[in-house]
Structure formats: structure tokens, C-alpha cells
Design goal:
Structural class: alpha+beta
Strand order of the largest sheet: 2-3-7-6
Mean pLDDT: 78
Helix content: 10-25%
Radius of gyration: 13 Å
Number of strands: 7
Oligomer: single chain
Shape: globular
Number of domains: 1
Largest sheet: 4 strands, antiparallel
Number of helices: 2
């Protein structure tokens, strides 16, 4: 399953990524639209909560239902696998690694 995150209402905005193991940092205007959309459409069947430090924390059982995400980045479509945007805390809980 692949979901393309694109919002016609948001013009060109600056985002950042890193080649290290850091989380993807999105512009606030896109984050404020994309992350709630993602949570409402893909985590609704699982226990999750919002942590001030990490953002959304959820049961790792949800990983099998999460999609690959296509992002339009600098005019190029980039594919983000679940392993690219989820961090496993090792205690059965996972977090969205999107800021």
C-alpha cells in the first residue's frame, strides 16, 4: 500500500531531511496537515497517544498496516518505507519519526 502525501493548498515550502538516522523534518504547514491525516487514517485501530517529546506513540503491531509514503521533494518523488518514518523503542511501542 502506498499513499501520496500532497496538498494543493500548500504552495512551495521548505523541508529538511538528513542522510543520517534522524527523523524527517517537515515544514509546519505540511506537518499540521499530513500527520493528523496519517494518524486518523492509519492508527485509528490501535492504541496511541501524543507525547510532548516524541509526538505520536503507538503499538508496534500497527506497523504491518502502515503504508509506504511518497513525498514530492524538490520536484522528485521520494519513497519512504515504514522503516524510514517509524522508530521502534524496543518495548512494544513505536513512534512516528516525523517532525
Amino acid at each position: 500500500m502506498t499513499v501520496s502525501l500532497y496538498n494543493d493548498d500548500i504552495d512551495y515550502v521548505l523541508g529538511y531531511t538528513s542522510t543520517s538516522e534522524a527523523c524527517l523534518v517537515l515544514p509546519y504547514s505540511f506537518y499540521d496537515w499530513a500527520v493528523p491525516y496519517f494518524v486518523e487514517n492509519y492508527l485509528f485501530n490501535y492504541d496511541y497517544y501524543y507525547d510532548f517529546s516524541w509526538g505520536y506513540i503507538f503499538d508496534c503491531a500497527a506497523i504491518s498496516d502502515l503504508p509506504t509514503i511518497d513525498l514530492l521533494f524538490g520536484g522528485y518523488w521520494m519513497e519512504m518505507l515504514v522503516d524510514d518514518y517509524v522508530i521502534n523503542f524496543g518495548d512494544g511501542s513505536c513512534g512516528l519519526c516525523i517532525q
